[in-house]
Amino acid sequence: MQEAHREILRKNRTFLVRELEPKLLYDYLVEHGIYNDVMLEDIRAERTRFDQSTKLLTSLTRRGRDAFRVFCQALDDSGQYDIADRLLSRSQEERAEIEARKREEKRQMTRGYTATVSATAVHTSRSGAVQPSGGHEDTPWPAAGDDGIYDVKRLLNRCTTLPSSNPRVYSMTRKPRGHVFILNNKYFAGLPLREGTNKDAENVKKLFQELSFTTETHQNLNTAGIHEKLRNFAQKNHEDSDCCVVVLLSHGGQGGIFGTDSGIISFQDILQKFNGENCPDLIGKPKLFFVQACRGDDRDSGVTSSDSNIPGSTPSDQSTPDATVASPQQVFAPNVPSIADTFLAYGTLPGFVSWRNSDKGSWFICALMEVFLKYAATMDINQLMTEVNYHVSQKIGTSTSYRQLPAPVNMLTKNLYFNPGVSLPSLSDTTDRDEPCIRQESTAARSVLSHDQTVLKSTRGVQPTD
Length: 466
Prior knowledge:
With 466 residues, the protein is of the alpha/beta class. The chain has helices at residues 3-11, 13-19, 26-31, 37-44, 49-60, 67-77, 81-88, 92-111, 152-155, 197-210, 223-235, 267-272, 363-375, 381-393, 451-454; strands at 122-124, 130-132, 158-159, 178-184, 214-219, 243-249, 252-253, 256-258, 264-266, 287-292, 320-321, 342-346, 355-357, 361-362, 407-411, 439-440, 462-464. Helices cover 32% and strands 14% of the residues. A 6-stranded mixed beta sheet has the order 5-4-6-10-12-15, with helices on both faces. The two termini are 41 Å apart.
């Protein structure tokens, strides 16, 4: 917690202990990651309101940089506006605006809403569940240009309304949302050149910038360089961020990725840099990792399916995997620590290769781009990655009959929507507006070819990826 916020709590301690109703705050503080249930049991054990308030205020100053902001949000959420006014020195006009916004949010929550998507039959309920009422075959689908680069600004579908509040959904409305770290390793000592990786790096950079993130790209780092740059990124100021993202494009093996010196850095070492001890600014906030790298050297030949006419069974030419040297181990996340609020999106199953196209980029990143461009305004990250799984699973190369299936690992504690096109002030906003919003189709949607024509069209020069 910032020293200025500590001072505010200290000067108002007598008032807070006298006026605060702590029981009304507990659920909100847990849902936003400031406390967990075990911590609150100790506070709840105090028999009087006075003692609970005292214990809560004493521990609050040690609950991270977001503790004061979330505490004030909890006051508003529980109707204790007078206390929040005093702590934030709010004017009557600001107070009236907050109350009006809360009334509108409650009205929206009680009434519910349906998100309508023209040209696709996807309906979104207030709870955020997306139910496709029709198939994928007839819907327009984003496509990369001849150079392999997606026109993200033109193709991305955006929200047309502000999302309403839901404590079971992460806040994703600040601008910028947070920081994105992109590692792009192309050249290696003793491993093949990763042709096509620059297309992946450029595409994900454009995508996350359009999703209101700031990005930094690091090219061709050895093992020590990866450690250093990731450590610096984790330790930068994330206090005013809703989220952070790490994209790793490299050769890999079971349990980690390779630096350009062909040394390996384990996923465990990567994730530990972002745990609560090493990165307190991100406690309770989503941390997303997208990994385009091999995780072994097994190759998936697939099985014969009765759905032989599934869109995407058309070949992707000359696919090659990124080289690996480690033996496969059939576990989903070997030696990965349990870090809450983390989502790992691996491009392939443990033990298997991941395929990359030398002209267009990797199967995984291409599918991720197209799914996010089309559905990021209406689907949460689990639904998005399920779509990515589907599209990658339908790809097949002409130079090889092998298949691929991504393997996301979800350690998030809430739903996450990217809310493209929505932004609220990062400091003055005192409420969370976190549900999926109504999506507006991109201006290019009507001119894009249908899904079965474009989603898995043939590409050239595909290499074994990473």
